[in-house]
Amino acid sequence: MLDAFGKCRPRPDQLVAIGSETYPYYRPVTERLDDGEVVIGGRAVLMAGSNDYLALSDDPRLKAAATEALDRHGTGNSGSRLLNGSLPLHEELEAELAAFLGMEAAMVVSTGYQANLTLSALFAHQDVVYADRLVHASLMDAVRLGHARLVRYRHNDLAHLERLLKAADPRDGRLVLSEGMFSTDGDLCDVPGIARLARRHDARLILDCAHDAGLLGVGGRGAAEQLGRQAAVDVQTLTFSKCFGTLGGAVAGPRHVIDYLRHHARPAVFTASLPAGCAAAALAALRIIRTEPERRRRALAAGERLRAELAALGFGTAPGIAPAMAIPVGDTALCARMWKELLDEGVYTNAMVPPGVPEGKALIRLSVTAAHTDAQLTRIVDACTAAGRRLGLIAATQDGTAP
Ligand code: PMP
């Protein structure tokens, strides 16, 4: 008989073997040092793999707000928002988020992943979801959990999306799903073009702004604001685990839609609510996002510099504006080696391998924050140069030796 756990045994062809020297996952961060360094494996390394773009997760104001809320409400709410787990803090955060985003209402949930899963309640039998081919796994999981038919359009390809929308059955509900800023390459959704198509074809536009809310646009509202089309977005999801420096997520949109989600979105109804400390930290972060635009300017400038220098070195780093970017590697085992080489150089990055990325498209994801100094950015570039040359990802020095 087939052993149902057979699938869990390591496969001989597994390239990134658990426990091996180059295994890049689940490495505990044992300590945070003051200057953006962290201790991993007993060694201080520079963190270049965190989504804390605005460097708020260690901000004293967030910590003070979280500590006070924790003292008042305890470490958990022991129930769902629907029943016993709602706090005034959740409601305050929802009201401020909705006002910030220019939406009628918002619903706070416990993670960004969950915020996207709640969308499943909008994906009913008679609906078609048109999703950008590169949207995040959590959005694909929302589609799986819902009942709508899925149609994928080529990344940011307006002509392709229009062809697909034109072929729609007029009786079907239509929803277009994209990310505001795509998390791996840091490029933006063509919000003006996609919003135009959505309007022309009676489709609702839903944007996951996990990476851009707090970072882009004059007011920090995200990619749609940056591109001048904030009002064209029907529903926006976000996470507090990136620019907001804590944990949690939210869905914002028209009041009747949010009220519907509050009662019908199983991933929100059947799970415990966001602990007070995280809600308070998110609220403090939102207020900082509104009042300290220089933080996003610093993060974007750091990203711009690193991206330009990696591209100039010949890594094939794609253009974009985000503080997150990729070094394309291709082969999974080579990607794990590159990750280890960078770690040995004292820089912590993220190795993204299939199924997180398509087969043969393994990459190193680097991200920088408002707190990275010029000297630290130079260290990251130097580490990439040395590691990239050793592994032949970029050309060696003129005399053919590694530096
Ligand atoms: N959407 C996108 C685009 C993401 O990159 C992520 C997390 N990496 C999420 C949603 C989920 O957010 P969280 O980690 O807060 O659950």
UniProtKB/TrEMBL annotation:
InterPro entries (UniProt xref): Aminotransferase_I/II_large, AON_synthase_class-II, PyrdxlP-dep_Trfase, PyrdxlP-dep_Trfase_major, PyrdxlP-dep_Trfase_small
Aminotransferase class I/classII large domain ranges (all copies): 49-383
EC number in record: 2.3.1.47
Catalytic activity: 6-carboxyhexanoyl-[ACP] + L-alanine + H(+) = (8S)-8-amino-7-oxononanoate + holo-[ACP] + CO2
Molecular function via GO: 8-amino-7-oxononanoate synthase activity; pyridoxal phosphate binding; transaminase activity
Cofactor(s) needed: pyridoxal 5'-phosphate
Protein keywords: Aminotransferase, Transferase
Pfam families documented for this protein: Aminotran_1_2
Keyword Secreted listed: no
Protein name per UniProt: 8-amino-7-oxononanoate synthase
Species per Swiss-Prot/TrEMBL record: Nonomuraea phyllanthi
Phylogenetic classification of the source organism: Bacteria, Bacillati, Actinomycetota, Actinomycetes, Streptosporangiales
